[in-house]
Structures are given as C-alpha cells and as structure tokens.
Structure prediction request, 171 residues.
Amino acid sequence: MKEAYFDEMRRLLSLQTARYPLMNEEDAVKFAFQALLGPGHLVASKERALLRLRAETKELTATLNEPLAEALSPDWVRLNLRPALAIGLSEERIADWLFLSAAKPLSFTRKDVYDFCLLLDASVRMQAAAARVLDEGFLPSHSKAYKDAYSPAYRVLNAQVLPEEIFNTPR
Prediction:
C-alpha cells in the first residue's frame, strides 16, 4: 500500500512543481507532511478553526484564478480559500470539513514523511530539510520564496469529507 501511495504522491507533487516552480526542499517537505499527516496538528476545536479561518479570509480577495482543490495524496487535498470564497463556500462549512478531517485516523507517521522526502531526493539539502520533521514539535512551513510568489491560502482537508463537486469545479 505504501509504495502505491508514494507513487501517487510523487505524481501529484510533479503537478505542484509544475504549477509552483519556485518550490524547494522546504516546500516539498511541507507537501509530504500535509499529504501524509493532514491538518490534525492544527485543529484544537471547530470554533478555534472557524475563528482562524475568518481572520484569514478577511484579508483575501475572492478569485477563480487558482484551482479550488489540489490533491496532495489519495487522502488529502488543499482547498484554496480565494476560489472557495469566489464560489460562495462559507467559512462555517470549511471549518466543519476541517474539523471532520482532523478527526480522521492517520495511516502514516513523521518517519514516513522523512522516508518519502528522501525517496524524492537524497541530497544533503533534502536530508537536512526532511530531518526536522522527525522532531515532534516541528511544523513545516513554506519557503519565503514560495510565500512571496504564491501567497498560499488554503486548508488541508480529507478528500472523504468533501462533496464530489469540489473536485469538479471549473476554474
């Protein structure tokens, strides 16, 4: 199972690197972390998730210039907030999906994140970036270059909690 899962993640990561060419090792580690572990580490309660989401969406401009959903793995999806706002998805609905997603049991560990990253690239730079995920207190973030170029604004959600139309929404 793990081999097929990792193969699909590699395919999806290649789509991400084509869409976001400034991705580096730090961003690949974040991708792997989210693709294997989802958002559970960030969701203490539905109410707190909703408050954070409302604060973030206040600063965003609704647009359809990016995909609504981007698959990270067979289980996890990034729901981009700007197009979500543009099609009228409420913060409450997104927070519900986030809370349900965070409750999903995980099949993978931080060690799996590390292993996937080294399968991608065994360079010293990747080893250094990936090794940090083995520390239970570490949460990966996007690189400065990625943040500056793409202004990411999304929530990682479990694909099973999302309605099918999320995946079929044109952009």
Observations:
- The mean pLDDT is 93.
- The longest helix spans residues 2-19.
- Strands lie at 69-71, 76-80, 154-158.
